[in-house]
Amino acid sequence: MSTVRILRGVNNQPVEAALLELTQKHVEDFSTQWQTPLIQATQEDKFWDWAFKHRITSTRDNYEGYAIECEGDTQGLMMLETQQHRTQFRPGRRLVYVSALSVAPWNRQQLQQPPRFRTIGTALLEFARRRSTDLGYEGCIGLHALPGAEGFYERLNMMRFDPEPEDIIDADEELLPYFEYPPRR
Amino acid sequence: MTESSTNATRNQAALDIMAQLNDPEWVRAAAKLEEEAGCDISAGALSDHQLGRMMSDTEGFYQHQRLRVLVFRELRQLLAECELGIGLPAAISTGKKILVERLRAPSDDIQSQLLSIVSEDLSTPQDVPLPDEAKENLRRIIQTVLQAEDWETISSAAVKALQHNFRARFDLPQTA
Lengths: 185, 176
Known about the structure:
By secondary structure, chain A is of the alpha+beta class. In chain A, about 30% of the residues lie in helices and about 30% in strands. A nine-stranded mixed β-sheet of chain A has the order 6-1-2-3-4-5-7-9-8, with helices on both faces. The radius of gyration of chain A is 16 Å and the shape is globular. By secondary structure, chain B is mostly helical. Chain B is built from eight helices and no strands.
């Protein structure tokens, strides 16, 4: 377990949160606390199957699952793939691919103002870079931003990669912009 | 750099990230950035049904994905050589759809040729291009499975795109 700081939305005061490996509790929190508001707000990730993702991260060496917990509730969820993805900018080099990243509906500023907590997503993303560093990938990470999220990744100065049409192999990816963090210097 | 110094650098970088995650100044800057972006930050492309396919047959899944890349890339190259200009994207898009249909149940001979090409590709490093012979083979396959009417449909798509662009350029009424 690691401790990370996040901010309470109402007063911007730092709060300690726990960054943990994904467990059944987090999966249950998703279905009992997150899913209904996500469906009501027609969020893209409303039907993500975190139980299935949990099964994968528990049984496959190349998948890892993490969650941020604070005040007893799951505040953010992330799934990483660590072996099979390669950077688009340095041929042959591996990176950590963020297969899924999602924050609780009450932490999304477009759904709740002020959000209950801020910086959950950024903390998860930085932790993905830490895993990339641990694995010798120099902090490189890649991800596909869901619709409406690309502005955030552009602000982080992540590099955007738009594949050639013939390289698009999946209908979902066709609609999603791909971003990469270059190596940490 | 020795292995131990590489490990030390790596460990230090990991520690730096964790220190950063607990630095109140960094957290405030991160919050400001999220606030300014003012949007969702969710990420993830591989849908659960695809994950299921990959879990049940990892090797087959990657072969299939890679084969699609190789076939589409060669189709693009073939069409690019036809100098279709602004009609090229429409031709590629139409060609891809038809090709997927035509390759849904290929003959045994085509299947074995495709498998041999993808095996050759997967056995070489990612940044090494497909050997010329395999490339030629792939072209022959595309030209075999796409029938005369398919090429007509693809060229019509290119012509329509060109006409659409022409009408838009000169403010002419668009037709269906």
